[in-house]
Amino acid sequence: MSLPQPLGTPELYHLRSTLGVTEPILYASIGFPPSESPSWFTLHQENVSLRLRKILSLPSRLLMAVVTVGSDMYVLGGSVSGKPTSDVNLIDCRFHTSRSLPSMKRTRSRAVAGAIDGNIYVIGGCTKNSDDWAEAFDVKTQTWRGMPGVLPRAHWEGLFVTSAVMDDKIFVLEPYTTCLVFDPKVGALVQWDDGGELKKLWQASSCVVDDMLYTIDLGRSLKHPIIVYDPKAKEKRWRPVYGVNLSRDLRPLVAYYDSKMANLGGKLLILVGSIAMPFSHCESEQVWCVKIALERRGDEIFGHVESTEVVLKSNKCPSIELSRTVTL
Fold first, then answer.
1. Which of 54, 131, 139, 281 has the highest CB neighbour number within 10 Å of its CB?
2. What strands, in cross-sheet order, belong to the sheet with 226-229?
């Protein structure tokens, strides 16, 4: 896997797409608190190893929401100097350029967002207001519209843990009661009927592959470190991903303090921040990358760890804000 270098013209990228030679590329927002705010990194091949390469001058903020559409990333809100912002930026990952888009109606920090049918929906991250607590951005017309009536009944301010787009809906993990689901066809954010089961083991280090939600379960409630949830299954419950062993395959997670998961072309890719500890395998602050291939056998999912390697070293503790995949 290599990062395509900017080759000069959009026509060339269109030709690559027409010929079917595009590939998924991972982008990660990583900071080094308290002195360094987050920056974007890409995962690329360096000789025979994978490495994270820092990209300068692209907007990355604390507590931002990020949505990917093709080769573009939309950066929505976040925190600037400790204050929420309504800024929206479009990053063209083909050329690593950025431009400002029309601002949201509200300032938002720690909102959730997802792209469905040509619209980007952003929810919460601000105090409740029935007119624009949720907003929708039309990618084609580049305009925002408020979504009245989207408010849930729960009494909290919409500072979410994470979210996932499955079955053309946005599922939301919030910290206090249960899980919520937003259906654009209905235009309302409501409690998910099976949210108690979903919330039980869902955490921020998660991603969606083939419309199913994968997350890390280091407590091994189901006796396996990776688990999966299918919202369309008749019996809605977490299931183990077989074949992945914590001590053998996921060694960095033993001394980890931060991790983020992404869908890289149908495979699970986990970035793990590990700290230097006496008598551990970590000699410095590191970011590891674990790549896991998935295979479905009937109703069961099996994982095969293809690689586990250090992709970034630092003398400071890296904070992995989020990771996203684009197609180039």
1. 139
2. 206-209, 212-216, 226-229, 238-242, 300-314, 285-297, 267-274, 256-264
